[in-house]
Write a structure and sequence with these properties.
The strands form two sheets. This protein has a two-stranded parallel ribbon. Strands 3-4 form a two-stranded parallel ribbon. About 55% of the residues lie in helices and about 10% in strands. It has one domain: 3-Layer(aba) Sandwich (Rossmann fold). The protein has eight helices and four strands; from the N terminus they run H-E-H-H-H-E-H-E-H-H-E-H. The protein is mostly helical. The chain has helices spanning about 5-15, 25-30, 35-40, 45-60, 75-85, 95-100, 115-130, 145-160; strands at about 20, 65, 90, 135. It is globular.
């Protein structure tokens, strides 16, 4: 959440000639409800099941750059699906950057948690995120284009065949 997945993902997709897909946007389109309303009406577990179905569906398609919600890869099964179907990239930010970027966003249901609980969730997710194929720091020191350039250079290294 707040790492720049959508912004960077759109530029990366354009550079690669791929289509950009945001799992949250797809879920909102299919359900006709905002994510915050899904959480409120049905709970987090229901939403996580929708995410799992969406990543399974998208993993079968080619030439996509997929931006996921922050909780989607923080699940062993989802992360496995992602890693088996493409190159997984973690846009890494620290907790303070996260808070500065999304701290006042009312459309993010998990931000209503106590700050300590939020930080705990943030840190727990790192064990999953750290399993990404590529890790790119996306703090406020680089432009979007510089971040995309870093990703493209790393992808080329991952795609070299011997």
């Amino acid at each position: 959440m707040g790492s720049g997945k959508s912004t960077v993902g759109k530029v990366l997709a354009e550079e690669l000639g791929y289509r950009f897909v945001d799992t949250d946007e797809e879920i909102e389109k299919e359900t006709g409800k905002k994510i915050k309303d899904i959480f409120k009406e049905y709970g987090e577990e229901y939403f996580r099941n929708l995410e799992r179905k969406k990543i399974l569906e998208l993993s079968k398609k080619k030439n996509l750059v997929i931006s996921t919600g922050g909780g989607l890869p923080a699940n062993k099964e989802n992360l496995s699906i992602m890693k088996n179907s493409g190159v997984v990239i973690w846009l890494k930010i620290d907790f303070d950057t996260f808070l500065n970027r999304v701290g006042n966003d009312e459309n993010r249901p998990l931000l209503k948690e106590d700050i300590n609980k939020l930080k705990e969730r943030f840190n727990k997710r790192k064990k999953y995120y750290s399993q990404a194929d590529i890790v790119v720091i996306n703090d406020n020191t680089k432009t979007v284009d510089e971040t995309v350039k870093d990703i493209l250079e790393n992808i080329k290294e991952k795609l070299i065949l011997f």
